[in-house]
Specification:
The chain is mainly beta. The protein has no helices and 5 strands. The protein has a 3-stranded antiparallel beta sheet, with no helix packed on it. A two-stranded antiparallel ribbon has the order 3-4. Strand 3 and strand 4 form a beta hairpin.
Length: about 70
């Protein structure tokens, strides 16, 4: 699948997604992202959610799961 996106969970850090994409908020408002890599917060502490701002390095965040399971 050449167009497949891969979401990688970094150890005790953000979800990393390569390539540009369209992010949509809970109200359906789109935000275009053209960066080479997107880092999405999973510690809950970022001041720039949904993006990671590095807060996981100072707030003691540890991830129990090795990967995200979608059902």
């Amino acid at each position: 699948m050449p167009d497949e996106k891969v979401i990688r969970a970094s150890k005790n850090g953000p979800y990393l997604i390569p390539g540009s994409m369209l992010l949509v908020d809970e109200d359906g408002n789109p935000t275009e992202n053209t960066r080479k890599m997107v880092a999405l917060c999973r510690c809950g502490g970022s001041k720039h959610k949904p993006y990671c701002d590095g807060t996981h390095k100072t707030n003691g965040f540890t991830a129990d799961e090795a990967f995200l399971q979608l059902r």
